[in-house]
Amino acid sequence: MKALLWIVLCAAIVANVSLNLMEDNGLHIALSVVSGLVVLASGAGLWMLRREARP
User: Where exactly are the transmembrane stretches of this chain (predicted)?
Assistant: First the structure.
């Protein structure tokens, strides 16, 4: 599960960076919002699946 979330996170970051090469229009804004939400969701999922440090 964690590996899938890492792959999704990296793919969304790459997609977000490549979207900056597009012209500013409605599709650019929509895809940027979607990729941002995917980054936030996968980051939150990874944070929730982390292991607590044991003393």
Answer: 29-49
- For 3, the enclosing helix (H) or strand (E) is helix 2-19
Give the containing element (helix H, strand E) for 48.
helix 26-48
Cβ 39 vs Cβ 16: under 8 Å? yes
Contact call for residues 45 and 5 (beta carbons, < 8 A): yes
pTM of the predicted protein model: 0.80
Residue type, 15: A
Report yes or no: 32 and 2 within 8 Å, Cβ to Cβ.
Answer: no
Confidence (pLDDT) at 25: 86
